[in-house]
Amino acid sequence: MRYDTKVYFWKDETGKYNPVTHKHEKSIQLTCTAYANVTDLGLTNQVELLGGIKEGSKTIRIIDLPPDKYDFIKIENDPHKYRFVSSLNVSKGYAMIVGRDNG
Question: What is the CATH number of the domain that holds 47?
C-alpha cells in the first residue's frame, strides 16, 4: 500500500464582525497535512458500511491519527471538500471513510 497522496485537514472558523462590510470574516486554517492512501469506496462496501450508495465516498488510510479538531479534508489534485463519515478498525494505522461535501 502506497501513501502517495497528500491530504489536508482544514479548520473553518468564523472570525470577528467587520462593521465596514457588515459581515463576519471567515478564516480557514490548515491544521495538518499527511500522506495517505486514498481509494474510492466500492459499491459493495458502501452498501455494507453506509447502508446505501453515496456518490463521492472515499477511503483514506493514514499512518498516524488525524488531528482532533478539523472541519473538512481536501485531497491533493481534487477540488472537492470531504467530510468525515466513519472510521474503520484496521490493524495498522488509521482508516476513515469520507464523503463529498455538497456545500
Answer: 2.40.10.270
